[in-house]
Design brief:
Shape: globular
Number of helices: 12
CATH superfamily of the largest domain: DD-peptidase/beta-lactamase superfamily
Number of strands: 22
CATH topology of the largest domain: Beta-lactamase
Strand content: 15-25%
Structural class: alpha+beta
Largest sheet: 8 strands, antiparallel, barrel
Radius of gyration: 23 Å
Distance between the termini: 59 Å
Strand order of the largest sheet: 15-16-17-18-19-20-21-22
CATH class of the largest domain: Alpha Beta
Oligomer: single chain
Number of domains: 2
Length: about 500
């Protein structure tokens, strides 16, 4: 049986087929919030589960979470087992493969290296490469690819993601990875458009950045991360070392498929470590998020400077819904807070980390199941935490303008995303306007502020409706604060 520790008081709780284990050092008020949050996961308007019930229903073997409030970890929890064979219980020190959460960690590390004078993120990355050279491309005739392009997914590089490897597999080098000599690819990484003009998620771009830094400094990226980030922050259960390397962690959760069975030996090996090779715990990731938040306010930060924090969280482009920075997603507006975040999904394991740009709130969640098993539970727990902790700032209704019946009639209906084909719908309920499907499967209120522009409750972007006479359509442009970009996203014929 796993132990639940409340300030030294040992409480034992049996939770259906899972044993609940939590560690906490907070006030009684926070303990109460925790109990509410973990017992009120809403699947829909009429069904509510506790965490362990949601795990059982979705076939998720293990889950860990750390919650940040006012710049400190206020509670942590862990449920389930490391793997279905040993059935060892997960604890607060159990690390998971975090997959693409490695990207904002890598970007932050690179900005620190820049501050140390070791690299420049504005330099052409080709100046640093030795083992491999960028492919020739018409798009590079008058433009150089920089680290900034690669870290913000605006370089035009291909290779979205990568296959995991396991003990007994032949592990490719990152040179072979870039040459496309790996499962899932049959040709060298490509440059698809002029750097800086578009956005497209590219794990391959991070591999180029990893190679450039390693070639230039002659030090493996995992060792640089230890020296400049993990050890200074005291992240004892975090590494970019891989399971086939000395120094890998001992207390880890294993990857499981959608049927709850171990994938390979359960320990994915990722040579593309800048893109997806990080192992960590929610508690360590919460420490990292808090350091970033403290650095943003330039108070109590010790490792990440204010300059670095602002550099890596500043929005580079809004051409992806909401916005993207150097490594961080800037597209979420839960509770009308502005968040920096990133998710990750290697085969059968992953999670998400979130932090508010102001106020010091955040969540780190990791689980050892496939996307199908893991994401519904993590998303429900995230929503429950945000609701329970009351992280919500009301829309400023002083900005609201009268909404005419003509405008309502014009804009209500279904719209299709111009790139991804996903649908959203604008509907009227009780004389209020709502958008369905824009943020997950939820429904969010729209507030009209004039000039065909609406504030979206729960999103950092505004919406502007433009009548397109040439294409006989009504188009939705997304507007992001602090940027001048207007991005055409949805259209209604």
């Amino acid at each position: 049986m796993q132990r639940l520790n409340y300030k030294g008081l040992m409480v034992f709780i049996i939770c259906h087929s899972f044993i609940l284990g939590c560690t906490e050092n907070t006030s009684n008020k926070t303990n109460s919030k925790k109990e509410v949050a973990i017992n009120n996961l809403a699947k829909n308007d009429s069904t509510v589960y506790a965490v362990e019930d949601a795990m059982n229903l979705n076939g998720l073997n293990g889950l860990s979470v750390a919650v940040i409030e006012n710049y400190q970890v206020v509670w942590t929890a862990a449920w389930g087992i490391k793997d279905v064979v040993s059935k060892e219980l997960i604890d607060d020190s159990t690390a998971y493969s975090t997959a693409s959460i490695a990207k904002p960690v890598t970007a932050t590390l690179f900005a620190i290296l820049e501050e140390q004078g070791l690299i420049s993120l504005k330099d052409p990355v080709s100046n640093y490469l030795k083992r491999w050279t960028l492919p020739e491309s018409e798009f590079l005739k008058d433009t150089e690819i920089t680290f900034e392009h690669l870290l913000s997914h605006t370089a035009g590089t291909s290779q979205h993601g990568f296959t995991d490897f396991y003990e007994g597999d032949t592990i490719p080098t990152i040179v072979q990875s870039l040459k496309g000599q790996i499962p899932g690819y049959d040709s060298e990484i490509e440059i698809k458009w002029k750097p800086g003009t578009h956005w497209s998620y590219s794990g391959g771009g991070y591999v180029i950045a990893q190679m450039a830094v390693e070639d230039s400094l002659g030090i493996p990226l995992a060792d640089l991360a230890d020296k400049y980030l993990f050890k200074p922050l005291g992240l004892r259960n975090t590494t970019m070392k891989q399971p086939n390397e000395p120094g890998f962690l001992a207390n880890v959760a294993k990857a499981h498929d959608e049927n709850g069975q171990i994938v390979g030996n359960g320990l994915p090996i990722t040579p593309q470590i800048a893109a997806s090779g990080l192992w960590s715990t929610p508690s360590d990731m919460a420490t990292f998020v808090i350091e970033m938040q403290n650095a943003l306010r330039n108070k109590n930060n010790t490792v990440i400077s204010n300059k670095v924090a602002k550099r890596v969280t500043a929005i580079v482009t809004s051409k992806v819904l909401g916005g993207w920075s150097l490594g961080w997603e800037r597209r979420y507006g839960f509770g009308n807070y502005d968040w920096f975040s990133h998710g990750g999904a290697n085969t059968g394991i992953g999670g998400h980390i979130y932090g508010t740009m102001e106020g010091g709130n955040g969540i780190a969640l990791l689980g050892n199941g496939s996307n199908t098993n893991r994401i519904p539970v993590l998303d429900q727990l995230r929503n429950s935490i945000i609701k329970t902790h009351q992280w919500y700032k009301p829309i400023d209704k002083s900005l609201q303008k009268p909404l005419t019946s003509e405008l309502i009639q014009l804009i209500t209906g279904k719209y299709t995303h111009i790139l991804f084909g996903e649908e959203i719908e604008l509907v009227v309920r009780d004389k209020k306007l709502y958008i369905k499907g824009f943020i997950g499967n939820g429904t969010n209120e729209l507030t009209y502020i004039g000039d065909n522009i609406f504030i979206i409750d729960g999103s950092p972007s505004k919406m502007r409706f433009v009548n397109n006479e040439l294409e006989d359509s009504l188009d939705i442009f997304l507007l992001r604060n602090n940027t001048n970009e207007k991005v055409k996203a949805f259209s209604k014929k």
